[in-house]
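Risk register update: the risk of archive-format incompatibility is retired. Evidence:
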Amino acid sequence: MKEIFFHRSLPGLRRAWLFLLLVAGGLVNQSFAQSGTITVAAAADLRYAMDSLVSVFRTQQPGIKVSVIYGSSGKFFQQISHQAPFDLFFSADIDFPRQLEKKGLTASPIHTYAVGRLVLWSTRMKPKDLKSLLDGKVRKVAIANPQLAPYGKKAEEVLRHYRIYDQVKPKLVQGENIAQTAQFVSAGAADMGLIALSLALSPPLKTQGSYYLIPSTAHTPLQQAHVVLKRARNNQSAYAFLSFMETARAKKVMEAFGFSIPR
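Archived output:
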């Protein structure tokens, strides 16, 4: 595993992490029944992948109720900083969990569960490369708000990498999160959009348009990380869900939606 950090002052952390290691190593039966409730704050790029994950998890742990709320990682960070009632945080950027850890608001190690990819997506034309954004027919380009959404921040990096930011800037429209950004393109409010590959591959969108996969070298890595939050430090159902995320079946779901899994 990569990107694992320990915070020694958190009570019960060693016991919880030992439990995760035992499950990952096959020393604890993953099919044992549990009951409980967990509320997950999940980055918007996870909407369809997480829905699939929760569906599989419920077949294994029918006694655990999982509620998922989707939105921008930056907005969740602000809410969690003000004691929002979430148990797990699945961020699209590892930096937000790290900041929460510094605030003493986490109860588990921070773990990179996936690396996201960015695409140029359109329902009106077939993007060939980033120069497609300079086409006169492209009047509006959707990106997520760089201040709130990691995918928006990476989109801005991409435009600057290809030195077309100043030319494209007048065309930009911003969604609060990456799912809303994709909706702008889907609804015709934008001609093209820089969105998550996971959304371009999702059942509702994959037949609507075409995409160009942006080279990963055009921006810094989209390291996506999860963490148990302080309010759930004694919630074993939360740790059970993270244990499930380490299974081969969960990883296959993530890969099906275009995420790279750290080895």
